Amino acid sequence: MSIGKEQILHVARLAELAVADADVPTLVEQMNRIVEFVAQLDEVPAGEEAPPFVAGPAELALRPDEPGPVPLSHPIKAFAPEFRDGLFLVPRLGSMEDA
Amino acid sequence: MSAIQHITSAMHEGRSTPQATATETARRLTEAAPLNAVLHWSPELLAAEARRVEAVSPAERFRLPLAGVPIGVKDNIVTTEQPTTCASRILEGYISPYDATAVKRLRAAGAMIAAKTNLDEFAMGSSTEHSAFGRVLLPLDHSRVPGGSSGGSAALVAAGVVPAALGSETGGSVRQPASFCGIVGVKPTYGRVSRFGLVAFGSSLDCISVFGQTVDDAGRVLAAISGHDPLDATTANLPPIVLERPRGHLRGLTFGLPTEYLPADLHPGVRAGVDRAVAAVKELGGTVKSVSLPHSKYAVPTYYIVAPAEAAANLARFDGVRYGPRKIGPAGDLRALYQATRGQGFGAEVRRRILVGTYVLSSGYYDAYYRKAQQVRALLADDFRRAFAEQGVDALLTPTTPTPSFKAGEKTADPVSMYLADIFVCSANLAGLPALSIPVGRSEGLPIGVQLMGPAWSEAALLSMAAALEATVSATSEVR
Fold first, then answer.
1. How many angstroms separate the CA atoms of B169 and B177, rounded?
2. 3-state SS assignment for residue B156
């Protein structure tokens, strides 16, 4: 399957990436080369019967789904200039509009 | 005696001090500046590291495995005292509010963080030519590359500036440069070392890994940073690695030689390196047998679907709002800000991989590429399981790289040719297995490495086998 200029620009929009016009021809060529290279996986007869892949060894079982505090490197109030009663204090919206 | 043993014994015997080691490291860092291996360091920070170690009582210091040992840290591992840029303009000047768990553990073991090292931008590359801050030079031949993406850490260890350094692996980024530079590189089992504070590239593949001048140096550092971390839910609930005593033989052990890793067109120097390692295994009493890992040829294409897909998701956070410098796009709105910041902030290789990753995950292509790659990844992992469980192999012995170090600029125009430099190393990342590279000689003056791969959690056994080979094989003589 070949990738053209329009497809590159579409993918770049999805990726929120500005692409200069001058770079498009090289990107078209290189993306086609990469996609052609990875397409050799089509040769592998891995259908629905293929085992699902799970990253890492079996010992990495999921932990129990129990909510708890998130261990942070710094106390939460250190992340904002002002913190009171469990809340970050921010400027009033009105005062931001005035600024 | 390893480089770390030299430093710690000199300190414990009163022949040196952490401050003296810091001063000497600063001198070597200055001398090694032409390699461009370092992005951030200062004599003041090094001196402060030494003062921290000297504040520990001598009795307590004696119990610290890395007391007063200077260590390099790849610049995609966060530290609070130096910037962390991932060698990218998009993170220029960024300073993390916290330290990576691996860095905290190094300090808890008495180590001194010597420098933040250069890398391929966001760890994407195999030559350390894709850094926004210039390429890293191979210490033995400045016209060549040190491998990548952890080329700065590798060059620093190979140049003798530090005895060991942290790198990171997503598809072989420590073992491949270790091979090019003639040093030891160890990638642990996925889940052995915390990824907390490692800037994410491919989350199901990433592993903080270690370079050492010798197997002992790498093993000591790996043991110090290993173990469960509540800040990384993907670390296994296992205790840290306990190193085995060096063994003088390999009797009772079977090494598998995968036929797929020894193609007819393999570089003759690399082939000779493998032959030398095989002869050493036999001399040490080990058995070598031929095995097959039939899906090996699909490792690189699988990797170049899975890794860019994960990278496209992970790097979405670098948008000009939360980190680093911000560019205002022509339309002046938020979307233009994202696109301009990312378009100008990321280098060519990172942009290319984000585009590939976005493409393979996009509507209509997901099944053909990403889902297929995950299926092949399961088959690749199953090849290894069979070799270890059904064919009675204790470790696989392969070349680390298909060629020795190549010339700078040789592969930059053709991304696929660069990707193939990782053909023998990326399978271990896809399968989550531990693997290491040790030097076994030189071909026309350039280092050649061989790789040992083992079943999950076999790091201590692999290190012990590697130490036996290291003691038998000459790492610096020409292979024939």
1. 11
2. helix
Q: What are the two backbone dihedrals, phi and then psi, of residue B238, each rounded to the nearest 5 degrees? A: -125, 150
Catalytic residues of B, by residue number, are 74, 149, 173
- Please give the Cα distance from A71 to B399 (Å, whole number): 42
Distance of CA B136 to the CA centre of its chain: 15
Nearest-neighbour CA in chain A from B105: distance (Å): 14
B285: left (phi over 0), alpha (psi -120 to 50) or beta: left
* Sign for the pseudo-dihedral over CA of B10, B12, B17, B21: positive
For chain B, list residues with pLDDT below 70: none
Distance between CA atoms of residues B74 and B76, nearest Å: 6
Contacts with A96 (C-beta within 8 Å, 6 or more apart), sequence order = none
Can you tell me the distance from the alpha carbon of B366 to that of B462, in angstroms, rounded to the nearest whole number? 37
Instruction: Inspect the interface and report whether the beta carbons of B342 and A14 lie closer than 8 Å.
Output: no
Interchain proximity A56–B432, CB inside 8 Å: yes
- Count, residues in chain B: 480
- The C-alpha angle B137, B143, B147, rounded to 5 degrees, equals 50
ipTM of the complex: 0.90
**What per-residue string of b and e applies to B345-380 under the rule 16 or more CB within 10 Å gives b?**
bbbebbbbbbbbbbbbbbeebeebbbebbbbbbbbb
In 10 A of CB B264, how many CB atoms? 5
d(CA B15, CA B388) in angstroms, rounded, equals 47
- Given a contact cutoff of 8 angstroms between Cβ atoms, the answer to whether B147 and B126 are in contact is yes
Residues B412-462: tens digit of each pLDDT? 888 888 888 899 999 999 999 999 999 999 999 999 999 999 999 999 999
Q: Starting from the edge strand earliest in sequence, which strands make up the sheet with B435-443, in order?
A: B38-40, B112-117, B70-74, B164-169, B207-212, B184-187, B435-443, B446-453, B395-399, B254-258, B287-291
- Tokens matching residue B266: 């393999």
Q: What is the pLDDT of residues B14-70, one digit of tens each?
A: 999 999 999 999 999 999 999 999 999 999 999 999 999 999 998 999 999 999 999
Amino acid at B96: S
Tell me whether the omega of the peptide bond preceding residue B173 falls within 30 degrees of 0, making it cis.
Answer: no
A contacts of B373 (beta carbons < 8 Å): 38, 41
The tokens describing B357, both together, are 């990753």
Could you give the CA distance from residue B407 to residue B200 in angstroms, rounded to a whole number?
29
Distance CA B239, CA B219 (A): 15
Cα–Cα distance measured from residue B310 to residue B306, given in angstroms and rounded to the nearest whole number: 6
